[in-house]
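Q: Predict the assembly, please.
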Amino acid sequence: MFIANYIGLLHGSETHLKDSLLKVAEHHKSEPDIEYICQMLAGWSDMHIQHLEHFIKRYEEAKESEPDKLQKTLFHGIRKGALGLLRDLHDLYLLATEVEISYMVITQASQALRDDELEKFCKDAIKETERQINWLKTRLKQSAPQVLVAAG
Amino acid sequence: MHETRDSIKDIWGGRTPYYGSWPERVDERTLEEPERWVQSACVLCSNDCGMDIGVKDGKIVGVRGRAVDRVNHGRLGPKGLHAWEANNSPDRLKYPMIKRNGKLEQASWDEAMELIVRRSREIIEKHTSNAIGFYTTGQLFIEEYYTLGVIGKAGLGTPHMDGNTRLCTATAAASLMESFGSDGQPGSYTDLDTTELIMLAGHNMSNTQTVLWTRILDRLSGAKPPVIIVIDPRRTWTAAKADVHLAPRAGTNVAVLNGLQNLLIEMGKIDPEFITQHTTGFEVLKKTVSSYTPENVEKLTGVPEGDLRRAAQLIGEAKSMVSTCLQGVYQSNQATAAACQVNNIHLLRGMLGRQGCGVLQMNGQPTAQNTRETGCDGALPAFRNWDNPSHIEELARIWNVNPVIIPHWSAPTHAMQLFRYCEEGSIKMLWISATNPAVSMPDLARIREILDKRDLFLVVQDAFLTETSHRADVLLPAAIWGEKTGTFTNVDRTVHISYKAVEPPGEARSDLDIFLDYARRMEFKDKDGQPLIKWNDPEGAFEAWKVCTEGRMCDYSGMTYEKLSKGSGIQWPCNEKFPDGAERIYTNFVFNTGFEDCETFGHDLDTGAVTSLQEYKAIDPKGKAWLRASDYHSPHESPDEEYPFWLTTGRIVYHFHTRTKTGRSKELYDAAADAFLQISETDASRLGIKEGDWVEVTSRRGMVQMQAAVGKIEPGQLFIPFHYGYWDGDFRPRAANELTITEWDPVSKQPHFKYAAVKISKISPQQLSEDPDKEKQKGVFQSIGSLIDTISGAILIGGRH
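A: Predicted assembly structure:
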């Protein structure tokens, strides 16, 4: 059984998503919405991480290096200004989809395991991950034309 | 000189008790006997009372209410009776001005307009139209908004159009769209004439819409008086009339309203049949509100358990109900979510679309409704959905342009973002009409810096030199109400016509003429090479607007200038089916939520994320209203050890916006000459502050100094009116928005003026002069002073008259 690997992957990805949301909140404070919305979204990830501990105890986790690598590939230092914001939101989106797909995979496993509790956790969490993704998409769509066309 | 009452002292006038049909009472104030009366309506609050303008020797000499009008039945409030004097003020701008070497100098219209056109073209060539933004107002007429809307959307093709209606009415629109699929007020003012219960949420109606409050006072003194429930942290005149006054801590509206819904559901005081047939989302709502027990609500909001129960009991017993919301909801935490909960209460109880039952998501400004309708607030004209390709094609057909010119790749830019783009430098030209962001926007220090940016080309059209307009690169003198003809709409969908009564001063021109001139000079064309703007006067613009609205919910197609001139204002929809307008909408309980019709596919109320076309199609409620559920989230800034008080800001009865007009009437000016800090008895005595003492109020953004007014507010909370800026020569920092936060509601994008954490300290009057910011403030007004010297003769800033 390799579920411990995927729990490790999810744990790592969700933690990176939370940390990155908080960093973006800090770096783009001057935007009227970024700070508080990113903090709120980080709070959702934090709740997921806390709940996940319960299942880590149940199934253990195998630490996966992939989330760390992904994080390093994605965020390059502090990026300021409109283009920096766009790039940061873009990378948050990629991280969030990594989290989303991990939940989906574990949901499948939870059904085969007949672990209703794990299934419910994943299904509730993935709803919030989808809300994170939807917000990132909305904000990216708003920023993109202004940054790529009018700025500079 | 004729005055039916001294409205400064007697704000609402005498009672005419009633139930059913509101009796007439004609209010009048003239300084001389008019030679003639000209039909109009009042533009000093969002009520839009029908009014006649008295004219003598080419000058406005007074006003009187129109008895025939459905909105006011002849009545007028203190602002309406006095603020017309602003038209005659010697402070009026009379000539265009261009900034040269840091100073505004008199220029000709040709010079000013050519400069605007040259800069527009240069910017478009280098950076596209995405580098041009417009910031309008809640003061223009339909004809002007619509013309500007077409210029922006089909001429330039810029997504950056918003108005300061974002600060006053955006949440009204957003909540109506989220609940009912489209903007458009379900109710009518006549619902107040028979309703059994009125709930005012965050709405100090006695101050903000005095004539509408008079209607309620008359009901209260007549047969079958309605029950009044008020949700407001302050003990206002409105709250004094309440049967139940819920005074929640700042930012906790959602918790209170969830608590009410929970009790209504628990008591079975809901309409299951209506819920099943006409709404969607009940199960989620029920689950969400179930944890808001009266005990929990008391913990979250400070509202005593018993009061909440009593309010729910009264709502549960009422056979009809009208609710209103205003800035206490719209400018506070979770604005759209809270306003939707008020809509929910009506949906849960089936209290819509029939006599005595309605929701009035109020507007702040007289013509705010029209920015929403015409597309000047970023939305698309006639409640079209920017995310629905067939709506874009329809507009392109009406305007005879290629659909791609119309910006619809994402939600239109809202005010706070627009200023952020200016700050970042990606908007390089900002055109402000008839509004004063240098006093009205949050976090003023930041707004001043943005407006003063050297690489921002700032065009301002205004009637006066204001804290904003003196910063312009090109300043255009505008004609105002009474000096131009046009139409506008109030919160209960009543459309009024207001005729030109007198000539504008000097070379001032109407906003419509300015926009038409810009369009001509910019040579905007349709796809056949014909001029994009095909009208030259107000009536032509109105006829074009009718075409744009035909078949839409806000259908004006059955109206004409002639029809609007016959007596009362007329409600939309007005078309073949309703030739005299329709009292209510949604009378068949079919809402505008169908995929084809809806103005929005909806948002996540917590994040503002938009629902996509595909997602919406999958859940299309096809005419059922949305019950939108939301959990309470605490505000983003809360009092702490360093900043221990909640600050809330708002209006007072004698003034409107930043007093640009009301401050030009001596009586209104004197009635409330300066800002003040309202503080509870408990806090005042603890800090040794007495009525009239000077205090300094500081937030993380800035500082103000003012005198204290003690009482009628809960401990821990403070209130400052937002009207006061610096144009009338007071240099000490006193604008409430020096303190407020740059944050918005995630859905409506309305800024949060209603809460900020602040600290206060008592100061001596001598300390006022030691204020470190004073020099900076003074700098601004010295520049006004020197400006006045430079152009004396062009404009005269007189003393108070």
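Residues 3-150 of chain A form a domain with the Ferritin fold (CATH 1.20.1260.10). Helices of chain A lie at 3-27, 34-59, 66-74, 81-113, 116-150.
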